[in-house]
Design a protein that fits this description.
Length: 581
């Protein structure tokens, strides 16, 4: 209750003046120690994330009869994102809407409109031009179209409703428009023997997007909320709490006929996995980045360079190519590299040269003048394949290649695997979905012994959430009787060895190699922690603006925290509530 009172006080302090001042929010009263900084930032905090920068840049005037719909992103962590995946599995949306997240709201709307006419081909391959005509691959038959529409009824209606939702405020800006969407997110958990507690991240925010044209947007998502370890890197709005003013995302994006360029800070998730991805996953923190994409069907290409740590000059580069070999088969190849120095190194920014080659070229430049370790990078590859079934199902596999023993027989091969399948089954009063997903990550994966080049950001994994030396499997069953709610049942098993993210393998010439485990990297090391459990969930979507749900979970852990014989089991109830406009 004390934490609830603190949260309420924080919300009153942070947002009490919002309505009284025409949605102009000033946090300086709630955080005097931040007064100077917040005063300097007041222009960008106008109406939260309303992007007053757009007001300054463009003269205000009467809006057009049809304001432009620019390339605004559909957030990677939006809870309706699972609807995007379900529609991709059913063949209604192309798989790229999921495998190249974040997609844009306009792109999703266009694909949904095209699929009404059957112009998104079997397996979710986009086969339509902008005028709706078909090219290349064959479109689905009439039977296929009817099947797709039946399979996608709940998710299609839910997603269309959210994409069409009107913003809370609209402001004309020359030929464009600024749109403001407030939101409130609350969550809490009850754990057996511990009781109720808020968290992990209750927040209130304002999401603003300046649609300056049908090709160009500026976006900012500003919130005040509980942030893990917030006091360690920022002044709190309320004393003795981690309640901070922070950004969820910010970017500027320009789209052209066959691609886009974007700069900002957002989350990414590349690959077909439902719960996880091996190289870059939705569970990773947001990254400051510059990104561009090219879509020249049947090929889609993305390239990104970003900053992981300004203090240590630790950066990341990623590029991915997807190819539709057949209406039912799609393959993808992603390469990533952690490197040091300036993030604007030309060969990383241009994004078309393999990063292993970039390292060799830079080594050629410096080997006569300094140590090669100064330009050494940590390169990891992911390959994935999706096979779509004709009756509303799909199977997928991801393969991660971190390193292969080539120079030394003692050097371990570091790999990762993820595979899964999902099937939709229409019923008389709704839609069933059944599926599974499993993964295995070898020990030492993601970590290297040189510099600070581990595959991490903010101390967390950029890839698979359980990190190296792990195995896990999930079986799930979901039922959607209508677009307004869904029910779920899941079974989970996790096996975690003593290997940890950031614990590398050391060459035998390194004195630290004495700590290398004796077992192969493919085997779980030491005392293995084993977790099993199940969960029951219900999620409700009564309107486009309101979503809430709960999940009851029971978990049992043997050899807890890798201690032989230690056991822990408990019931847990999570509840969440979201309102957004």
């Amino acid at each position: 209750m004390r934490r609830l009172r603190t949260l309420r006080a924080a919300l009153r302090l942070s947002f009490g003046a919002a309505l009284a001042k025409n949605a102009v929010i000033s946090f300086s009263g709630a955080a005097r120690r931040m007064g100077a900084a917040l005063t300097a930032g007041a222009a960008l905090s106008l109406s939260g994330a309303a992007l007053s920068l757009g007001v300054v840049l463009l003269p205000l005037g009467a809006p057009q009869a049809a304001p432009p719909e620019g390339p605004e992103l559909f957030p990677v962590r939006d809870r309706d994102g699972i609807s995007v995946r379900h529609l991709a599995v059913s063949g209604i949306l192309p798989w790229s809407a999921w495998t190249l997240r974040p997609a844009t709201r306009t792109e999703l709307s266009r694909f949904l409109d095209l699929s009404e006419d059957g112009t998104v081909g079997e397996g979710g391959t986009d086969t339509a031009t902008e005028d709706g005509t078909e090219t290349g691959t064959a479109a689905g038959t009439a039977e296929r179209i009817v099947t797709k529409h039946a399979l996608g009824v709940p998710e299609r209606a839910r997603l269309q409703r959210e994409l069409a939702a009107e913003p809370w405020l609209r402001w004309p800006a020359g030929a464009g428009e600024i749109r403001v969407r407030p939101y409130l997110w609350l969550d809490a958990a009850w754990v057996e023997d511990d009781g109720w507690d808020w968290g992990p991240q209750p927040r209130f925010g304002l999401e603003g997007t300046a649609h300056l044209s049908d090709r160009f947007v500026l976006h900012q998502n500003l919130f005040a909320g509980d942030v893990e370890d917030g006091r360690r890197f920022g002044d709190a709005l309320v004393n003795h709490t981690d309640f901070l003013l922070l950004l969820e995302s910010v970017y500027g994006m320009y789209a052209f006929d066959h691609g886009f360029v974007r700069m900002g800070r957002t989350h990414h998730a590349w690959g077909p996995g439902r719960f996880d991805n091996l190289l870059i996953a939705s569970t990773a923190p947001a990254i400051d980045h510059f990104e561009f994409g090219l879509d020249i069907l049947p090929i889609r290409f993305r390239s990104m360079v970003g900053v992981l740590s300004p203090a240590s000059e630790k950066n990341i580069a990623l590029h991915r190519v997807e190819l539709s070999l057949h209406p039912s088969v799609q393959i993808g190849l992603t390469e990533g590299a952690v490197f040091h120095g300036s993030p604007l190194q030309p060969l990383y920014v241009v994004g078309i040269v393999p990063y292993t080659v970039v390292e060799r070229l830079q080594g050629q430049d410096v080997f006569r003048e300094g140590p090669l370790s100064e330009v050494r990078n940590n390169v990891i590859y992911q390959g994935d394949v999706i096979w779509s079934f004709a009756d509303g199902g799909a199977a997928w596999v991801e393969f991660l290649l971190d390193d292969v023993a080539t120079e030394n027989a003692d050097q371990p091969t570091r790999l990762g695997f993820l595979l899964g399948a999902e099937q939709a089954v229409p019923a008389r009063h709704g839609l069933w979905r059944f599926g599974f997903e499993a993964s295995k990550i070898y020990d030492f994966t993601y970590s290297v012994y040189y510099d600070d080049s581990n595959w991490t950001h903010q101390g967390r994994s950029l890839g698979a959430r359980f990190g190296p030396d792990s195995e896990n499997a999930r079986i799930f069953c979901e039922f959607s009787p209508s677009p307004n709610y869904s029910l779920g049942l899941g079974l989970l098993a996790i096996r975690q060895g003593e290997g940890q993210l950031g614990r590398p393998w050391y060459p035998l010439s390194d004195p630290r190699s004495e700590g290398n485990p004796d077992s192969p990297a493919s085997e779980l090391t030491g005392t293995v922690e084993e977790t099993t459990g199940f969960d029951l969930s219900v999620q409700a979507y009564p309107t486009a603006s309101l979503r809430f749900g709960s999940r009851l979970r029971w978990m049992t852990v043997d050899n807890a925290e890798n201690v032989e014989g230690a056991r822990d089991d408990a019931w847990r109830l999570d509840a969440w509530f979201e309102w957004h406009r």
